[in-house]
Amino acid sequence: MLRSLVGSEMCIRDSIFSWTGSALSTCYPQVILVTCLAIFAFFLTDPDFLDVEMDITLRGHTLSLFPVAFLLVFRNGISYNRFFEGRGHCGKFVHKSRTLSRLVSTHISAHGDTQAETKLGLFRQNVARYLRIHAIAQRHSVRCTEGDTVEECDSQGFLEGDEKEELLAAKKNLPLLVLTWLGLTISEHRHFVVYDRVFEEMDKCVDELMEAWMGMHKLATTPMPFPFLQMLLGLLYLWMLTVPFPLAISYGWAAPFISCLLGVALFGINAIGAELEDPMGDETNDLPLHVYEGAAAQAAAANSLGWPRKGTCLLYTSDAADEEDSVDLGGRRIIKKKKNRKNKIRERELGIKRVRTEVTIVMKKL
Hints:
70% helix, mainly alpha, 3-stranded antiparallel beta sheet
């Protein structure tokens, strides 16, 4: 119990005083500006210094605070919804990648034909490979760096044949092209699918992968409306840059401290909204797309699709880290290798082979 309390206190302390990822790390220039302005207002109105008489009260700022607060709360509500909408699209991407990997692994049968089994082995590898390429293309698409997609995929040996040339010719919307390849590959092997409804489910997975990408792309390319931001920022800065003067008249030497606190609060809330409204970027508090890519790639490995190659380091999401040691890196969890990991993989492969054998026996009886 004591250790848990100590750990909790340490977590609270780290959360409060952490600079990385905090709103203050973004808005501290505005806070410093307001504090300096409050210091100037104090010297300007203090009788022992310049002693400038100003007949200003806090009544006007008290009344005008309501629209500023309303706009700040509204922006943060919208940004919060955008952030978790993006998390939902990432979750759909991982889920459909896992489902497609499972179906390709267990519901494709060569009916005892050795030559066809070799062909299906290559098919499974291509499905896993296309899912990996799609994940990379999707990340670059939502971060407006599509020009780096081909270079990254080619440097890791993911592209084969004329695929590099096709991607270069397409230039943009590369995830759409990769999903087209994936759909064509599945269609070419339709006669190996055990049930028609399984093929329909595979096609549905490809369709929902496209839906997840389009949802992410929508969030990445649709900013907050300009008139709203213009009104919010105009009122916020006008209020914060003028409030130090009535504070200096009413509270004297305490005005800089009060102004600093108000700056941290209001500018910080605005910074949180700005941070959350674009969850697909590469800043500290944005969604870790590499982690979701790793979870999708791990599904291919777990279902013995022959991809990725051995020795590849995979990043996991927290919910994918079942019964594994992990290291928390600011929301990104990396799974440590265990001594019995090879045994677990071998058990999974044997289980998948048993399922495939049972499916083949059922098909022969039919």
